[in-house]
Amino acid sequence: MRNIKLILQYDGTDYSGWQIQKNGATIQELLEDAIFSVTNVRSKVVGSGRTDAGVHAFEQVAIFETTSTLSPDVFLQALNANLPRDIGITGCEECPEDFHPRHRAKGKKYSYIISNKRPAPVFLNRYSWELGFQLNIKAMREASEYLIGKHDFSSFQGSGCSAKHPVRELNNITISDMPSLEFITFRIDTPVIKITIEGSAFLRHMVRNIVGTLVYIGKEKYHPEKIKEILESKDRRNAGPTAPACGLFLEKIRY
């Protein structure tokens, strides 16, 4: 039995997340269907983590086992030929039998895009949270410092989370205020905020709940020190709203 590692990208707009669901198409389901089309054998795909409905990925990592003798290069081409255009395999290789994309991961990087113009440019509609007003970036950066390190993130944990405990460690948060955005070969002159969060692991909806709370601080509904109080309360009701899924990208898995 061979263990095949895949690196893939996807636009999550039209999908019900990563994990197979009873209702709605998912990334895992379509990958398994594509593998069956190539090998004529059902294989279970295991990912580095679950992305929610509407969330995108620049770099998701997954594995599947197979007895097929196809080379990784042939697998890459054949799987892409059997996947929709909003899911793409960018890398494929054979890996050790004991490699597990989630258990071996040392960290993840997520990025979130906010459009500060309303209406947002057409080409950002699927990939950003349209706010349409100025945020206090200085206050947001000050607040984010309280989140760095190892904490109980119960206040930022979404309902239905299956994690054994709510303690997580964040290594870095950067908040970039950009006057424009490069798109393919074009420059879109629109104010954009990019929030990048790196950590060892994340709870369900944790990144989106952090972003929603930072936006409340940017709106000056909360003072920056409020985020420390929210952390210590360990109560989801005290944090800000859950940011929409459309602005979130799984950017990198670190091994």
Describe the model:
With 255 residues, the protein is of the alpha+beta class. Helices cover 20% and strands 31% of the residues. It has five helices and twelve strands. It has helices spanning 27-39, 72-81, 137-144, 206-218, 226-233; strands at residues 2-10, 46-47, 56-66, 87-95, 107-115, 129-130, 149-152, 167-178, 181-183, 186-188, 192-199, 248-254. Strands 1, 2, 3, 4, 5, 6, 7, 8, 11 and 12 form a ten-stranded mixed β-sheet that branches. A hairpin with an 8-residue loop joins strand 2 and strand 3. The mean pLDDT is 94.
Please name the CATH topology of the largest domain: Alpha-Beta Plaits
Given the structure, what is the number of helices? Answer: 5
CATH architecture of the largest domain: 2-Layer Sandwich
Average pLDDT metric = 94
Q: Which outline best applies?
A: globular
Q: Major β-sheet, in short?
A: 10 strands, mixed
Helix/strand order:
EHEEHEEEHEEEEEHHE
Q: What is the number of E strands?
A: 12
- The radius of gyration computed from the alpha-carbon positions, rounded to a whole number of angstroms, is 19 Å
Helix content: 10-25%
Low-confidence stretches: none
Instruction: Give me the secondary-structure category.
Output: alpha+beta
Q: CATH superfamily membership of the largest domain, which one?
A: Pseudouridine synthase I, catalytic domain, C-terminal subdomain
Spatial gap, N to C terminus:
23 Å
What is the domain tally?
2
**What is the beta-strand fraction?**
25-35%
Properties at a glance:
ten-stranded mixed sheet, Alpha-Beta Plaits, alpha+beta
Short précis:
The protein is of the alpha+beta class and 255 residues long. It folds into two domains: 2-95, Pseudouridine synthase I, catalytic domain, N-terminal subdomain (Alpha-Beta Plaits, 2-Layer Sandwich); 107-254, Alpha-Beta Plaits (2-Layer Sandwich), CATH 3.30.70.660.
